[in-house]
Design brief:
- Keywords: Hydrolase, Transferase.
- It contains seven helices and 15 strands.
- By secondary structure, it is α/β, with parallel strands linked by helices.
- The protein has one domain (3-260): L-arginine/glycine Amidinotransferase, Chain A.
- Strand 3 (70-73) and strand 4 form a beta hairpin.
- The two termini are 15 Å apart.
């Protein structure tokens, strides 16, 4: 069972542009966004996972992208420090939520750090993106806070402004990614660490297919990523296609809407929410 934190898109809208997917001139449908989000939440519950909710705040239309709010490992929460001023007030809501729900060590990042948007936990390491949002200095901060090695990866394509739009963690030792989103040095690192990785096509990456959530068996990903869906099935996963087309107007999909709350092992005496 996985434990997720989500934020209902009650106030979802595209009022500004902070990534290439956002066009304030394009109409948005908040009711449709809520319907699509509810389908995803209900799917997690049907799969046996736990979903907690953080109340949305008026004036924060991007708050639905909960993955950006923090990174949580072993009950410790490192809350985001957003790059763009539009999203900075979200951090206070996450700090309050974690403090109120028994997490044993909670603090806001010192350096610009957009949570699981750029810090993806992969088994005993963290894959950390930079290039557009998260400050590279946040990588060292995360390593010290969580006590885990951090692998820095540099993004080069503005359409893939967060790591979770170009790479998905499928299991502790397996990822899927689109190599063209990374510098040559970062590609070499990924090839060395994950020689059996699933390599996504340009079309599936453009469809946000890598903005996916895996529980180790099921992989929920945008339904438009058809080739990637077939590749995952060949690897023994059970892919589930999602339609979050309205939320893609803000530059997010399945993973962006899903913050995983990782608790201490059962033998750890620390507080478990």
């Amino acid at each position: 069972m996985r434990h997720y934190l989500m934020v209902r898109p009650r106030y979802f809208d595209v009022e500004y542009s902070i990534n290439p997917w956002m066009d304030p001139a394009k109409p948005t449908d908040t009711e449709l966004a809520v319907t699509q989000w509810e389908w995803l939440r209900d799917l997690y519950l049907d799969l046996g996972h736990r979903v907690d909710l953080l109340d949305p705040r008026p004036g924060l239309p991007d708050m639905v992208y909960a993955a950006n709010g923090a990174t949580v490992v072993n009950g410790r929460a490192l809350v985001a420090r957003f790059r763009h001023h539009y999203r900075r007030p979200e951090s206070a809501a996450y700090l309050r939520w974690f403090a109120a729900h028994g997490f044993r060590d909670v603090r806001q990042a010192r350096w610009t750090n957009e949570g699981e948007g750029d810090l993806l936990v992969a088994g005993s390491r963290i894959l950390a993106g930079s290039g557009f949002r998260t400050d590279p200095r946040a990588h060292e901060e995360a390593a010290e806070f969580f006590g885990l090695p951090v692998v820095g990866l540099t993004l080069t394509d503005p359409r893939h402004y967060h790591l979770d739009t170009a790479l998905a963690v499928l299991a502790d030792d397996l990822i899927a990614y689109w190599p063209e989103a990374f510098t040559e040095d970062s590609r070499r690192q990924l090839e060395r660490l994950y020689p059996d990785a699933v390599i996504a096509s340009a079309a599936d990456a453009a469809a946000f297919g890598l903005n996916a959530v895996s529980d180790g068996r099921h992989v929920i990903l945008p339904q438009a990523a058809t080739r990637l869906t077939a590749q995952l099935r060949e690897r023994g996963f059970e892919p589930i296609g999602a339609d979050l087309s309205e939320l893609l107007n803000g530059g997010g999909s399945v993973k962006c809407c899903t913050l995983e709350l990782r608790h201490p092992p059962a033998s750890d005496p620390g507080v478990q929410p």
